Amino acid sequence: FFYQHKLKIFVCGFCIILGILTGIFTAIKMNANDATELFESFNITNSISDIEKFNENFFGRMFSYTIVTLLLFAFSQSSILNIFSYCLITYRAFLISINCVMLIIVYSFGGILKSIIIIFPCQLIMLCLLCLYFCFAYSKTCERKKYKNLRTKDYFYPIIITIVALSVVNLVETLLLFVF
Hints:
The protein is 85% helix and 0% strand.
């Protein structure tokens, strides 16, 4: 799989790095006051003190990556739409990095611990899972065009598996944020 899709994986990796660097430089260029206001509007990590905030964070992120997974599925159906998949991956990487840097700016040492130890690795794993799903969905689309015999379950099961894997990583991240 990796050998067959090395170009797509390389381009996805480049998009991730581009998005991360853009987010870092954008957040650093902001003033501290602007970063605080913008950070509160993004709201990636609240100090989770009760179950309601826990559910709000978990299900909000679950809804977000479910929509992203469905968009990646839609964009993988055509070679022309692949550019939108790369833009979506770059945008997700941008949001991850800008949120982590704003966390560091606003909360200093506590933000460093939360963002580097908990948020960045979990979000990066989720982004890599989305990239792998995109490569897999695109390969299924190429097989469908070539052999014309793929069934609906060939598309349905990978979406469900991807969403379950993303939910597990999201649950681990939310639990770690709840504990710390």
